[in-house]
Amino acid sequence: MTQLKDVMRPCGPIADPKAADRARNFLSDAAARDGWTPLLDAAWPVLAPIFGASPYLTSLARRSPARLQALLEADPDARFADLLARTAEQAGLDWDAAKAGLRKLKAEAHLLIALADLGGVWDLDAVTGALTRFADAALASALQVAARGELEAGRLTRLGEGEGGPVRGWFCIAMGKHGAYELNYSSDIDISVFYEPDLLPLAEGVETQAFAVRLTHRLADMMQDKTADGYVFRVDLRLRPDPSSTPPAIPAPAAFDYYESVGQNWERAAFIKARAAAGDIACGRAFLAELAPFIWRKNLDFASIADIHSIKRQIHVHKVDERLTAKGVDLKLGRGGIREIEFYVQTQQLILGGRHPELRSPRTIDALRALEAAGHVAPQTADELAEAYGQLRAAEHRVQMLADEQTHKLSESDGERKRVAALSGYDRVRSFDAAIERILRTVNRRYGELFPDEEQLSSKFGSLIFTGVEDDPETLATLARMGFSHPASVSQTIRNWHHGHIQATRTERGRELFTRLAPRLLEAAQATGAPDTAFKRFEAFFSKLSSGVQLQSLFLAQPKLFELTVQVMAFAPRLANTLARRPAALDAMLDGAFFADIDRGEDREVMAVAVSRAEGFEEVMDAVRRVHREQAFRVGVQVMSGAASAEVAGRAFADLADICMEVLAPAALAEAERIGGAFQGDVAVIALGKCGSREMSAGSDLDLMTLYRPGDPAAVSSIKEWSADVFYGRFTQRLIAALSTPTAEGELYEVDMQLRPSGTKGPVAVSFPAFEDYYSGEAETWELLALTRARVVWASSPAFAADAVAAIEAALRRPRDRARTAADVREMRQLLEQERPPKGAWDLKLSPGGLVDIEFAAQFLQLADAAEGGPLRANTAEALAAFEGRAPAEPLAALRKAWTLQQNLTQLLKVALGDQGDPEEEPKAFRALLARAGGVRDFRTLRTRLETARQAARAAYLKIVDA
User: Fold this and answer.
1) Potential cystine with 887: which of 36, 98, 661, 883 (Cβ 3.0-4.6 Å)?
2) What SS3 class is residue 747?
3) What whole-number distance in Å separates Cα of residue 240 and Cα of residue 252?
């Protein structure tokens, strides 16, 4: 008998010798106790690289050393066959025993397959085949146990056997890699569940759909519930017809109706790999046979082929990580990744497979070789893609072996990639990265050669002809040169618009105007550097117009306004969504005052008019959200256009938040009184954070605190007899809901109350005495720093507002030790750097010398000098300005300069990219906008200026806080 230890080879170097030593020490104790030390010693050269890289595999070995011993001594093929037999035996156990048994067998299968894979004993086909065969066996046993439970519950009249499965007429179709025997190491299993209603052996009175759904859920629970023993497989049921509106088990006749009427090409592609995997196998095979004409169409017109092409393009645009570097690359969905190889094959299978059954293989490489044999793929291309597929799948497995996570991404961390590199046989992570990058480039290059008329090129523009019923080839090439990655899709959309398929072009005049506007639209989209995004968002907006004559005339007459609108589409998804949801928001841009300075008084009037028409609390919430959306859109567009500086925008966003709270706070108070009864007392809403300092940006949340004081400490509300803490707690909860609950009009703000005394542990509303007591004794330095930005935005009476302001100031002006305060600030900043390091060079908040450093410096100066009458300003820029003459001039100037620069950049980045995105990866046109916001000519100069300013700000922060 061939023992596994004798045929394994070391997979690579030992990435973490200390981890390997720890594993050996633990296993040595077990081996000595159970008498297999010689076996461990003999196998250690091949085990050390594995346990030095994979915490997950180490945990499997540590959890059961005896299991590791048994695997090393066994013939791997024989052991796996025995494991499948033991998996089948679980079908005869009760629910709990089978649940535990299947999970233990999964652990054994995972360890055996990993050792055989990493040790070079099994090739990729053997590995993926073993994973799939175990999934099938586990699925069959789990189904048997679940079905027996239904029988015992009286919902089934009998259990079936053989190919009919335990429940005749009910079957699982394995999709994706599961269907093709290509499962990856930590894969979930994609299954679609169907049933023939007339075949189910149900007891009288049992409803078919309810039974089928219940059985499906029980099967999924058995497979994926996490217990102390882990899980078997995660189950994904979303590849069924219209999963958002259908139950997890579908009647077969309904499925046929769906696929025949509205089935899409991507669903045809999904069924290429489908096979009957569990349940009534004969019924499942018959189902797939009946579905074959839908999957494999013999006659395809031009539009159908173009739609098949769009499968590739849609995946490329919406799913792909655009980087072609190993750091952080998604080996599956990333550019040059596994998915590109699969779609390279599947798109051609869909086009050619209807007339050529020999091209219908569900397995990727088999299908690729069949395409090669039929002359559709060049031998060199097939060889390169086949080799790349094997290498990418092997790397994908090794990524997943680290922690048994269904991830396909290589880590950004060199240390983590070093583990994957070691498991892949590389001594140096750079060599591994270089190999991966070569593979990605090769795949991406070959992928780009598929359907070459869609290839993105950079050249002069050409013809733009949208007449006729077919795409003009020259136009497709022009669109590709303009940078569109879906030329045929763009062409089709524009031709549809020309044919009056939307309201904006329903009239002859509308179509005439669009004939002139179309090339300008494409040129404006190309100029953004993000033509796909710009065009897609413009499409969402344009298709919802009730009439297009006036707007198209305006765009033609004011090209700058049109270019700005398309820029908004490309760079500001939040603003683009506003336009798509409410095209009428663009009407505001027609107003000559749209780009004028934003006036708080005017905004308050607009809000008052909107709220005056609302009846009831919910209608008030909707009205506030409508006004907020329109006014935030105006501020955002001003930021995009450069009309509003960071200071102006920050105040405008904060003023808008204030106005929202000025309406919703009294409404929330009225709601509390309506439910609980009148209460004699006062309450105030205090803003902290960016709202308190009036430095908000697009998407900022609200840091709030509510402060109350009853007229009589013993008073209760008139209806529910709520005490003060309960009454004002209910008010606060109503206010939070009014500000944060999504309604039909969308969202407003996220609200954070954690800056109140005692944070989440304290009452949601703070009494006035408790506030004073807390900040006079218990409050920590970080809470006092936060309090420097406190601002009363609403109060039930002017007198209480004044008292709240005085209490805040009193808390800040209490004497405190300057050196101790400085030490606390430094310690807090160091802790923040450890726990929340910057995400990259464009993390303007957390980078050294970034906004946090400057805020800490400004807040420290105020806190340290407040007792001596120093200035208190909630706004950071105002605070820094107020300390002229009281703090060292040079550091203060450096902080103010860096603050202004980074605030200007932050406003644009938040409007455009939100919390995601890297300006380095954005289009050139956006980088130019960013450079303009930073007051320089180009992006390269901006990088230099930013780095210089941050270095100076960091030094200034350290000098001030050390002072």
Assistant:
1) 883
2) coil
3) 11
Q: Which of 223, 166, 222, 240 is nearest to 189 (CA)?
A: 223
Mean pLDDT over 647-668 rounds to: 94
Q: Is 496 exposed, middle or buried (0-12, 13-18, 19+ CB in 10 A)?
A: middle
Query: Beta-strand (E) ranges in 764-874?
Result: 765-767, 791-795
Q: What is the DSSP string of 238-273?
A: TTSSSTTTS-SEEEHHHHHHHHHHH--HHHHHHHTT
Give percent of the chain with pLDDT exceeding 90: 67
Residue 746 per-residue DSSP state = B
Residue 791, strand partner residues: 687
Question: In the predicted model, what is the mean pLDDT of residues 631-657?
Answer: 89
Nearest-angstrom CA–CA distance, 83 and 100: 15
pLDDT tens-place string over residues 573-630: 778 877 777 776 776 676 667 778 778 888 888 888 888 888 888 999 999 998 898 8
Helix (H, G, I), strand (E, B) or coil at 887: strand
By the 8 A CB rule, do 268 and 233 touch? no
Is 52 in a helix, a strand, or coil? coil
C-beta of residue 802 within 8 angstroms of C-beta of residue 877: no
Torsion of CA 128, 134, 136, 142, to 10 degrees: -150
d(CA 269, CA 153): 39
State which H helix or E strand residue 575 sits in: helix 573-581
For the packed helices 889-912 and 939-962, what is the interaxial angle rounded to 10 degrees?
A: 130
CA distance 784 to 770: 15
Residues near 658 by beta carbon (within 8 Å), at least 6 away in sequence: 600, 687, 691, 793, 794
Distance CA 448, CA 794 (A): 59
Cα end-to-end span (Å), the chain: 76
User: Looking at residue 590, what is its pLDDT?
Assistant: 64
Vertex 402 angle, CA 398 and 407, to 5°? 75
Q: What is the pLDDT of residue 320?
A: 40
CB 360 within 8 A of CB 271: no
Q: Between residues 503 and 582, which one has the greater pLDDT?
A: 503
At 120-134, the pLDDT tens digits run 999 999 999 999 999
Facing residues of 189 across strands? 235
Find where tokens 């489908």 sit.
274
> Contact at 8 Å (CB) between 447 and 470?
no
Per-residue pLDDT tens over the stretch 756-796: 887 777 789 999 999 999 998 888 999 999 999 999 999 99
Per DSSP, the residues of 464-504 read ----SSS--HHHHHHHHHTT-S-HHHHHHHHHHHHTT-SGG
Query: Which residue has 């620069």 as its token pair?
Result: 901
pLDDT in tens, 904-936: 999 988 888 777 778 888 878 888 889 999 999
Q: Choose from 430-439, 517-526, 643-652 the range with maximum mean pLDDT.
A: 430-439
d(CA 21, CA 51): 9
Indicate if the alpha-carbon torsion angle 419, 423, 429, 434 is positive or negative.
negative
**What integer best gives the mean pLDDT of the chain?**
89
The token duo for 468 is 């006729």
Report the alpha-carbon distance of residue 643 to residue 645 in Å, rounded.
Answer: 7
Structure tokens at 438: 């070569």
Q: HEC string of 495-555?
A: HHHHCCCCHHHCCHHHHHHHHHHHHHHHHHHHHHCCHHHHHHHHHHHHCCCCCCHHHHHHH
Give pLDDT, residue 620: 92
Rounded Cα–Cα distance for residues 148 and 201 (Å):
13
Beta 189-195 vs 765-767: how paired, if at all? unpaired
pLDDT at site 667: 94
Provide the token pair at 791. 């601002």
Among residues 229, 230, 10, 231, the alpha carbon closest in space to that of 115 is found at 10
- CA dist 813 and 868 (Å) reads 8
